[in-house]
Design goal:
By secondary structure, the chain is of the alpha+beta class. It has one domain: Aminoglycoside phosphotransferase (APH), C-terminal lobe (Aminoglycoside 3'-phosphotransferase, Chain: A, domain 2). The chain has eight helices and ten strands. The strands form three sheets. Strands 1-2-3-5-4 form a five-stranded antiparallel β-sheet. Helix 7 packs antiparallel against helix 8. It comes from Streptomyces varsoviensis. This is Aminoglycoside phosphotransferase. Pfam families: APH.
Length: about 250
């Protein structure tokens, strides 16, 4: 029997790998429904759904390897990063999915959530007041009206697989829906600012880089406490806290 590897596990969901099969266990059936439908609608390569028996979704492994990891240097070529940018653009130009993204919030709601999170980070001694204040200032540029597009919603670098300079697939679509294109681009380049130019060259249209930088700060501020509470190390080199420090 193949070894069972725990890929990720926390209170919301767990993913196991057995050979070339990934088993995603998620008690939120609506989230699994959205993931399966998003993969069917997305005009980019996605994993094959092998079977589904709630709360488990079985998908096939993709060829190639993840483009990189947060906190680690990426060995992928500039051409691979550009190919990923082109795939993201193709997704963003696709017809809108029929559901709103889980991360879609109006600017006022997002600002209130951010203010509450910043207050908590300082009050509980998680981050310094100066670090939080500076990044809250930077994050302001992301809190604006935007035109919704088909977004992945959780486009971390290790969710994009490449073989050489070709994108072989994008995984983990549970947060997909109508969202902000620049949130996807910011999530993808978080901690890998040196590759932003390659990604945007492949994306092929002008974007507001200041808003992408703002999303780096905003996403990191909103994510630090959740990551710590769920057993992840936001303070590891190159990860969320370093992203915040870079804005200083």
């Amino acid at each position: 029997m193949d070894e069972v590897k725990v890929v990720v596990a926390h209170s919301e969901r767990a993913t196991l790998r057995v050979g070339d099969v990934f088993l995603k266990v998620d008690a939120d059936r609506a989230r699994v429904d959205a993931e399966v439908e998003a993969m069917a609608l997305a005009p980019v390569p996605t994993p094959e759904v092998l079977w589904r028996k709630p709360p488990v979704l079985a998908i096939a492994a993709l060829p190639g390897a993840a483009l990189g990891r947060l906190g680690e240097p990426s060995t992928a070529s500039p051409e691979a990063w550009a190919a990923a940018g082109a795939a993201i653009r193709k997704l963003h130009e696709a017809p809108l999915p029929p559901w709103s993204g889980r991360r879609r919030r109006d600017p006022g709601e997002l600002a209130a959530e951010l203010d509450g999170e910043c207050e908590s980070l300082v009050a509980n001694g998680v981050l310094s007041a100066d670090l939080v204040a500076r990044n809250r200032e930077v994050a302001e540029a992301a809190i604006r009206p935007w035109t919704p597009v088909f977004t992945h919603g959780d486009l971390q670098i290790d969710h994009v697989f490449v073989d050489g300079d070709e994108v072989t697939g994008i995984i983990d679509w549970s947060e997909a829906g109508r969202g902000d294109a620049l949130f996807d681009l910011a999530t993808f380049t978080l901690g890998h600012e040196e590759h932003l130019g390659d990604v945007l060259a492949g994306y092929g249209t002008d974007v507001d880089v200041d808003v992408i930088r703002a999303w780096w700060s905003l996403r990191s501020l909103l994510g630090v406490r959740w990551l710590v509470e769920h057993g992840f190390d936001a303070f590891a080199p190159g990860c969320e806290v370093d992203v915040l420090r870079a804005r200083m």
